Structures are given as structure tokens and as C-alpha cells.
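Reopening: D-alanine--D-alanine ligase A still failing for me.
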Amino acid sequence: PANQGSSVGITKAHNQKELLSGIKLALIHDHKIIVEQAVSNVREIECAFLGPNHVPESSLLGEIIPGNEFYDYAAKYIQDNSRAIIPADLPKKLALDIQASARLAFRVLDCTGLARIDFLLDSKTNQYYLNELNTIPGFTPISMYPKLWEASGLSYSKLLDKLITLALVRHTQKSTLNLSH
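Support: Ran it again with your exact input. Result attached.
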């Protein structure tokens, strides 16, 4: 499903029969679906962003070690067998490259406020792929977004303060626009 969250309706297919079954499942959850080529030797790397579009702050990178074959809905919410590693164990240059790509995506897509940007990394080649830019990331105690900021030195309460301040600034900026025609 193109417009769901939390990996609802996501399937990893190993053959054509599983692909067709996965398409049917996805179509139960959305009229628009995405079919992607799998990344081999995959690692899921995540980065949190906060701030205005032109100067966003980024967190440390984190890695999800799924308890299942991939980080599906069950691995996220039902089973207690996935782990988060913060900071992700990556070579410094690779980590900086991923953060730079995430920052570019945040800016190009004109994000503001908050986002969590997820990458799939081939652990053998270190080739990485933008997987998802989530503008409404989870904000629960088990969610990566606040965990990434906490590990980066920003407490939950300070994170909330910053988000409120950003919203107030954005509201003030928008209120100066003439939107009547």
C-alpha cells in the first residue's frame, strides 16, 4: 500500500505466487500500491530530522534489527523480538553520506517540523537507498523518532518544546500571507 503506515499490508515476495498474493493483500489496504525490488543483505537505517526546511537538525543514525525476515507490522507491534541500535554501527563516511542524503531529501521535498527518513542499506556493498520519508513518525515510547533524539542528547520534553516552537514560528510566518482573493 502506498498510503499506509507501520508496514500494514506489506509483503516480501520470493516468487511469483507470493508476489500475486502480496498484491492482493496490499489492494485490501489501498487502491495505490508500490512494488519494489528487494535489497540484498539489507540493513534498515533511520535518521530523525527536526527544524525548518532550510536548516534542519539531524539525529544520530539508528538501525533496526528486525526479529522477522523484515521489519513488518508484527515485528513492530506484536512480537517483542526486534532491536534498535543507536547509534548505528557504520563507518563514519557512510554515516555522514546517509545523513547528507537524508537532509537533501528533507529539503527537496520541502519538509518542515519533523520527519524520520529511512534507508535500506546493502551490507555487502554499502549501497543505500531511500526507503521512506515519514512526516508523521511514531511518537510512542517504542518509536524510533524520540529514541533517536534521546540518544542524540535531546530529551523527550525538550523535543516537544522544540516542536511547539517550530509550529508557533511557522504559524506566525503563515499569518503574514494574504490568502484572500
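The CA atoms of residues 67 and 80 lie 8 Å apart. If you still see a failure, please send the error message rather than a screenshot.
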